[in-house]
Description:
Blueprint: H1 2-6, H2 12-20, H3 28-38, H4 40-46, H5 59-62, E1 71-81, E2 89-98, E3 104-109, H6 114-123
Antiparallel strand pairs: 1-2, 2-3
Helix pairs in contact: 2-3
Amino acid sequence: MSDHVNSFHSGVASTLSRVRNNFWIPRGRQVAKKVISTCLICKKYALKPTKQLTGQLPRDRVVESPPFAVVGTDFTGAITIKAGNQICKKVYIALFTCAVTRAVHIEVVSNMSVKSFIFALRRF
C-alpha cells in the first residue's frame, strides 16, 4: 500500500513497478489491483459524474408566451388596515400569479365574495 501511495495513486502498472524494484510477488498484478480497489482516494477519482434527471415542466411554462397569458388566482387572509383617523377595517388580497414568468399582481378587495373577485379581475 505504501508503494501505491508513494507513486501518487498512479495505477496498477506503476505500483507494480515500484514493488518489483525490491520484491517479486507471485501474481503481483492481481495483488496490485486488489490494493488499488481498496484505496479510497483512487475510488473517489475513478467515479464518473452522474447525469442530472430533469423533470418535465408543464407546457405553459416551456412555450414562449406573453406575461399573464396563463394565470393562477388565490385569496389571502384578512388584513386589518387603518387609513388616517378612520376605524380599522378588514380587507383581503387577491393574488394573480403568472404561470410563465412567476410574476405576481396584487389587488386589495373588501371581502372574499365572487362580486369583489370579479371587480379585482376587471381591474387586473
